[in-house]
Amino acid sequence: MAGNNGTAGNTGNAGAAGSVPRVDLRRRMPMGQQVEKPKNMGETLGRLVRYFIQSKNLLIGLIIAVVAVTIASLIAPSLQGQVIDAITERSWQEFRILLILLLITFVANSLFSLAQTLLAARLSQSIVRHMRYDLFRKIDHLPIAYLDQHSNGDVMSRMTNDIENISNTVSQSLGSLISGVLTIIGTVAIMFWYCPQLTLITMVTVILTVLVTTFMSKKMRVVYRRRANALGWLNGHSEEMISGYRTVLAYNRQERTKEEFIELSDRLTKEGIRAEILGGSMGPLMNAISSLGFVIVAACGGYFALNGMITIGVISAFIIYAKQFSRPINEIAQLYGSVQTAVAGAERVFDLMDQPDEDNSGTETIE
């Protein structure tokens, strides 16, 4: 317990001096708060890809399900527009055929969405299993100096919280990110096919979305990184005080320990509130921009229809496509925070994995 209870021992010496200094938070910063973003996001993502490759069958199945869901989502608005045109033209035979095709599309969308959810859950658990195995095997060979300089709680936080963030991102965000990119590409292509002029007008909202997302993402990257570090500090302090409880009692350091916990807890609370505010504000901002785009499409689409450039069914389909075009942008913007959290957690995990092993090259046997 020399390494892990050194904090308690030091506080005992401070108590002998009769003073209660303010807790030095830097002493418990495993990563350093100066780091406001991943040191090398490209390298971290590259190392994460290796774990995806280990479960390539699940990944391929997930991609197939996502592509199927996206295709069904792109076909449905077009069929709805054709149904409206069939009603307008009183073509009842075509109307019945289109309704059957629309029903098949919706059923296929639901089935593949279910498959996407199941495959994403299995993929995330497979990746977590491999990562935790590698991390635990590394912990078994860590040098004593590393454990002296890092609390057990911080190491445990990397094993649990950081890897759990990666799991949540894979299970909840990966499919949405892939589907969002495909939906944006497919929707733009169909919109240009229907009415290039109206599509170009709609692109105005895209520029505004990109500007807002870029600004917010920079702020969120800083806050999510600080929250991850603050959680590690709090876990480290709690584990040290619990495992060294006898030492705390021996030096009568209960009040000092409580003050340290309160300060660390307040730090985590503040960082958590900032992260939730920024993450929660992204959605309403994107919805406001999306609503602006909807108004533009409705007004300009009506003008083009009056001039015979498009039909009523095309207006209906185009409105759905315009909304469908902004939806994945909103989702990607909202998921960006969870992706940042996952990348920050992965970097902390890989930082521990990259530590050198304990030197076991000695040959002398001690009696």
Q: Number of DSSP strands?
A: 0
Largest sheet properties? none
Mean pLDDT: 77
Count of runs of 4 or more consecutive helical residues: 10
State the order of secondary-structure elements, H for helix, E for strand.
Answer: HHHHHHHHHH
Regions with pLDDT < 50 over 5+ consecutive residues? 1-37
Alpha-carbon distance between the termini?
23 Å
Beta strand %: under 5%
Helix content: over 70%
Morphology call: elongated
Q: What would you call the structural class?
A: mainly alpha
Rounded radius of gyration (Å): 28 Å
Annotate the secondary structure layout.
Layout: H1 6-16, H2 41-54, H3 56-88, H4 92-139, H5 144-149, H6 152-194, H7 196-243, H8 245-250, H9 254-306, H10 312-353
Helix pairs in contact: 2-10, 3-4, 3-6, 3-10, 4-6, 4-10, 6-7, 6-10, 7-9, 7-10, 9-10
